[in-house]
Amino acid sequence: MKTIAAILFGAIFIILFTTSCTQKPQEQILGEWQDAENMVWEFSEDGSLIFTRSGYGSKSASWAMSQDGKVVITYPDEREYAVTPKFLENGTLELDFEGEALSLTRLDSAGEDSDDTGINGKYVCQGVYDWLEFKDGGKVYISAAGMEIPATYEVDGDRISVTADGEGVVYTKRGDALDGGRLGTCSKN
After folding, report:
1. How many CA within 13 A on the CB side of residue 153?
2. Which class is 25-106 in CATH?
3. Concatenated DSSP letters of the chain
4. What residue spans define the domains of the chain?
5. How many Å apart are CA 166 and CA 176, to the nearest integer?
6. Which residues of 21-35 are buried (b: 16+ CB within 10 A; e: fewer)?
7. What is the pLDDT along the chain (189 residues), one digit of tens a residue?
8. How many other CB atoms sit within 10 Å of the CB of residue 137?
């Protein structure tokens, strides 16, 4: 009887462990992917999708996972595409656009939160900028006057240096807020 109980306990443990470790598609898609045209697709947890191509800038859209497992991409002009995602073992994501497959290669750490600086997230600003969104890998997106600008950042203690197009500014982290001096203050959303 003890043997059967031990086997059942072991089987239940294995089932619970493997199901808790399996990522859902909406978790698997998070992060940065690159297509054959060198466009980077960045799927964020908040449902934002940013397309960036060197020399062309960035465009924004939103994404959501539908009940039937499709990725629904919605552009600001309300065009909407429902695509079927297929996650391959080699770190490739295939998106099926009604029979046309688009392959994307993962660029980052599989959507895992690798931020050890505590800075990642979106900050709503009072001042020059509308918002700042800090991402893994030293990337930050700046919104000002309806434009979105890709930039980089470095953290040194409570000082965050943000650089875009060769120009830089230093913010001081004060709790969940960033003090940019004459540029204003940004609060974590």
Report:
1. 29
2. mainly beta
3. -HHHHHHHHHHHHHHHHHHHHSPPHHHHT-EEEE-TT--EEEE-TTSEEEEEETTTEEEEEEEEE-TTSPEEEE-TT--EEEEEEEE-TTSEEEEEETTEEEEEEE-SSTT-----SS--EEEEEEES-SEEEEEGGGEEEEEETTEEEEEEEEEETTEEEEEETTEEEEEEEETTEEE-GGGEEEEE-
4. 25-106, 121-188
5. 27
6. eeeeebebbbbbbbb
7. 444 433 333 333 333 333 334 457 668 888 888 888 888 899 998 999 999 887 788 899 999 999 888 999 999 998 999 998 888 766 788 888 878 888 888 876 444 444 556 788 899 999 889 999 998 888 999 998 888 889 999 988 889 999 988 889 999 998 889 999 988 999 988
8. 13
Phi, psi of 5 (to 5 degrees): -60, -40
The DSSP secondary structure of 50-67, one letter per residue, reads EEEETTTEEEEEEEEE-T
Q: What is the residue type of 189?
A: N
Q: Of 28, 44, 35, 47, which is closest to residue 135 (Cα–Cα)?
A: 44
